[in-house]
Design a protein that fits this description.
Blueprint: H1 6-15, H2 31-44, H3 52-55, H4 57-68, E1 78-80, E2 89-100, E3 106-116, E4 120-122, H5 125-135, E5 138-139, H6 141-156, E6 160-169, H7 170-173, E7 184-191, H8 192-195, H9 197-206
Parallel strand pairs: 2-5
Antiparallel strand pairs: 1-4, 2-3, 3-6, 6-7
Helix pairs in contact: 2-4, 5-6
Length: about 210
């Protein structure tokens, strides 16, 4: 995996709702317009909205997707690596959920995120927050995996970074091929975790994919 450059980070920020638009750096969300669009969408599919249980469904749809795409600001907390810790730091089975960019159906699973420290170490909860931050947009699993790894490598500058995602995609399980129970595994490695065979094997083994 090549290191992230300025163009990658600009694209990453744009797709994660941190471009121009509102006072907090994210485009404005128009729930009223989203609700009207959801009503038109359901009506176009032949779904009548005049029953009590469906009357408020367009509004619920709009709020649900707005929640899925909400991306709170991410501030990394790092500390000097005063003890010179040089072994792997790995957070396993971080739960995540996002929405497939191709069908706007949910996919969810767990992330295993690790790094080999350099000059600084990261507050452990921030590994989970990076995953949440990157997942708050329509995604593909491949891109999400690489974005988490690139973000960690660029912001923390560790000697190596690694990410493994395991997920079940509802676009595969409830439609199309309907491969119920299938999971998809993706990985992204950088630095020593990519170049050194022993370090790579240790990371993948601890992540449970070997």
């Amino acid at each position: 995996m090549r290191p992230a450059g300025p163009a990658d980070l600009a694209e990453f920020a744009t797709h994660n709702h941190h471009g121009a638009g509102s006072s907090n750096g994210r485009p404005q969300v128009d729930l009223e317009a989203a609700e009207l669009a959801a009503a038109d969408f359901l009506t176009a599919l032949g779904i009548k909205l005049d029953s009590e249980e469906l009357r408020d469904t367009p509004g619920r749809m709009a709020r649900a997707y707005a929640e899925l795409f909400e991306s709170p600001p991410l501030r990394l907390t790092t500390f000097p690596n005063d003890e010179g810790y040089d072994e792997l730091v790995l957070a396993r089975e971080i739960p995540f959920r996002t929405v497939c960019a191709h069908h706007l159906l949910p996919f969810s699973g767990v992330a295993h995120v690790g790094y080999l420290p350099g000059d600084r170490i990261l507050g452990l909860s921030k590994l989970a927050r990076i995953v949440d931050y990157c997942a708050a947009r329509p995604q593909t699993q491949e891109r999400l995996t690489k974005q988490v790894a690139d973000y960690l490598a660029t912001r923390l500058k560790p000697r190596g970074a690694g990410v493994v995602l395991e997920a079940e995609h509802s676009c595969m399980t409830i439609r199309g091929v309907r491969a119920i129970g299938s999971t998809t595994v993706t990985s992204a490695l950088s630095g020593t975790l990519r170049s050194d065979a022993r370090s790579r094997a240790e990371f993948l083994a601890l992540a449970g994919v070997q």
